[in-house]
Structure formats: structure tokens, C-alpha cells
Design brief:
Length: 208
């Protein structure tokens, strides 16, 4: 009986049937895609909308003053000023409370968010309607208190109508703002504060 070889054959010692060692792979270059941060995008969108509405307000004042005369321009500015004073009454539920409640429930179902919109909308509209009724039926006294003279009582009806529009606008604006739907916020602002006033001024200029 012969002893085993001290040094076995290399061909038999190496396992050539096993899996081959994986080759070192070369990492593919990473392509980075740069995109705007949502907050920055929203700020640019809202800022651009503010610029548009400011330009529209200046254009309306220019159109009214140039084509309708200084008397109607003064009445228009007076209506806007008085409506802005009374705006805080009809816009508080929608401008302050509604966005916060909607934002707090942004991860909840749409039913919960809608349940906040309806009360704010109704409170704002009812408040605006009550003020409009007081302006119309108490025009003699209210006209002297708000406008300083009974000669401007015919402006109380436009003030009441504007307050109703402000109440509806504030509710829709506040809901979308709380829901972080900044595109819809900008769309509402652009339509209600830029497109409608400019078209109204052009309509009055053409058919006055």
C-alpha cells in the first residue's frame, strides 16, 4: 500500500467546477435631476399673482380715471375704501380660522375639510348680507356716518354687493390656502382680483 502523495496534482487540488468569481463592476455615473423646492415654487407663484393683481388694480384706476372722468374715479375709490374697512367683518372666519383648520386636517379625508368650508362660507355670507341690508334700508343714516354726506347714498348698494363678493372670495381662497393648493389660490386671486375688475372697467368704458 503506497502512501498518499504529499503534494497532490494541482489540477485535482483546484476546484475548477465551482462558480467563477464575479468581475468588479464599474458604477454607472449618477445623473442628478434638479427641481424647484415646492415652497420656493409656491412663493414664486403667489408673488407673481400679487404682481398681476397690483398691475390690474392700477390699470382699472387708470381706465376709470381716463375714460369715465374724475368724479366716477373718486366714487370708485370711495367704494373700495369703505368696502376694505368692512371687509374685516365678513372675512375673519374665512381668512383666519378656515385656513388653519383645513391645514390641521390636511391628511384627513376630504369630508372633514369640506365640513370646515361650509360654516365659514355661510358665516361670511350671512354677515355680508346683514351689512348689505343695513346699508340699503338705513341708507340715509349710514350714508352720513360712512360717507360723510347724504349725496353719496347711491354708493351703498355697490358697497353691499362688493362685500358679498368679498365674503365668497375669502371662503374659497381660505379653503385652498389651508389645503396648500397654491395653484388654485393663485387662479382664484387672478380671476377675482385681476380679470373681473379689468373686464368690468372695459365694459363700463364701452357702454357707459
Amino acid at each position: 500500500h503506497s502512501p498518499p502523495d504529499a503534494f497532490p496534482d494541482s489540477a485535482s487540488a483546484l476546484d475548477v467546477t465551482g462558480p467563477a468569481a464575479p468581475e468588479e463592476s464599474i458604477a454607472a455615473p449618477v445623473v442628478r435631476r434638479y427641481s424647484l423646492h415646492p415652497a420656493f415654487r409656491d412663493l414664486v407663484l403667489v408673488g407673481g399673482t400679487s404682481v398681476i393683481t397690483t398691475i390690474a388694480a392700477i390699470a382699472v384706476i387708470s381706465l376709470v380715471g381716463r375714460y369715465l372722468g374724475p368724479a366716477l374715479l373718486g366714487e370708485y375709490l370711495l367704494v373700495r375704501r369703505v368696502a376694505s374697512w368692512l371687509q374685516s367683518v365678513v372675512a375673519v372666519p374665512s381668512g383666519i380660522a378656515l385656513p388653519r383648520y383645513v391645514a390641521a386636517s390636511v391628511k384627513e379625508s376630504g369630508i372633514n375639510k369640506h365640513s370646515y368650508f361650509l360654516p365659514a362660507f355661510l358665516i361670511g355670507m350671512v354677515s355680508a348680507l346683514i351689512i348689505a341690508i343695513i346699508l340699503v334700508f338705513g341708507h340715509s343714516t349710514v350714508g352720513r356716518l360712512l360717507l360723510g354726506s347724504g349725496d353719496f347714498v347711491h354708493l351703498l348698494v355697490p358697497i353691499g354687493i362688493m362685500l358679498l363678493g368679498v365674503a365668497a372670495h375669502s371662503a374659497v381662497f381660505g379653503y385652498f390656502q389651508g389645503d396648500l393648493s397654491m395653484f388654485l389660490v393663485s387662479a382664484v386671486q387672478t380671476v377675482n382680483l385681476a380679470v373681473v375688475p379689468v373686464l368690468s372697467a372695459v365694459f363700463l368704458w364701452r357702454f357707459h
